[in-house]
Amino acid sequence: MDQSTTPLGGPERSLLQPKWWHTATVYQVYPRSFCDSNGDGIGDLPGITSKLDYLKKLGIDIIWLSPIYKSPMDDNGYDISDYRDIASEFGSLADFDQLVAEAKDRGIGIMLDLVVNHTSDDHPWFLQSRQGSDNPFRDFYIWRKPAPGGGPPNGLKSSFGGPAWTLDPATGEYYLHMFSRRQPDLNWENERVRAEIYDMMNWWLERGIAGFRMDVIDYIGKQVDRELIKDGPHLHDYLQEMNARTFGSRDILTVGEAWSATPGAALLYSGRDRQELSMIFQFEHVTQQWDTVYGKWRPKPFDLVNLKTVLSKWQLALSEDGWNSLFWGNHDLPRAVSRYGDVTGYHIESAKMLATVLHLLKGTPFVYQGEEIGMTNVPFTAIEQYRDSKRSICTGCTWRPAFPQRSLSAGQTRTVAITPAHRCNGVRPPMAVFRPAYPGSKSIPIIRRSTPKLPSETRSRSGTTIAN
Hints:
This protein is an alpha/beta fold and 468 residues long. The chain is built from 13 helices and 15 strands.
């Protein structure tokens, strides 16, 4: 028996079957702030298509698109009014199909952001639902009568602040929204809702996408009368049903956003025999830096030992089953090099260090746009520059040489503030962070993909085997 593949003193185990996404690198694009192709100040799908060669050279295998669906943009696309159409500011379905086709020609897949915990209040389902308690779409959403004596049905709070219930005067009942009042929560206990969602997912899969990132997926099993929102008793039943009726027979990547996840829960989501998801986003390395009272609004000083402890914990927990997603930042988080590095004295060195750590851990790396050139937080000086929580820190990508000459038409305003010129990260050569210092070298994602085991297997001090 080869002891290098077994825990000390433990039984022989089988290694995970290799999947294509085990060696892939995912690049998140926030379309509005990525690349503007027509000069209207808003990034768009043709703009993304125009940068495919750049992303190919970088070594990207999957592009994760933040929501591009038709939406009133109350929450920047995370409030969807039509799951089968594209927001006009981003382009058209024809533009999307062209992006998928041209990306495929370069060996790159397109992953969509799937937002099915809630819709927009402009969605036709909700417009029907609020017409009356006898409407066939009423129970597509979660409605409750006022509490005895009046007021919200219970004490649930919205993640955006205030009660999670809003009164609909026309019917005299409250609807649930765990986020904005314009984002009513879908009722996943309704089989018709689930059937509609699965049909929509299959519609996109038929268009050739390579996967789904699932927004707040740990919310869909909620039981509101018990005030239980995350990790409800039927959460994994729904995911197994989704798997069976949509992507289970397809070779795609699925990743669920689960702020509540523990290592044990991660194995339920992504265990090899669970028939649920490829992996999840867990956020323990993020939340352990938050203040115990004020949360993310008052982060603790950076603690390297605690960070290493959390990363090691997750590497060990999913070493034999399940799979880790690896990331420093995304559209909801500060720029990685500003949070974990030294942007005043060792900017490039910090960014290279973070990239090296990320890509040499076991798991699938996710890179947020601009991370590959070490983009930093932006020191806004006026409240008017803050357009929304998802872009208050993570500003748009800057492209050379177009950016310095770029201007907006008369009467238009920038939708995203750009890093001031004296700190503009885009002036560095593309991939400066992801490329080692010596001439002719490949980017880190390409090196990682072409080196299956770094090293073959490593045994921790505790004796647990970690497959790399």
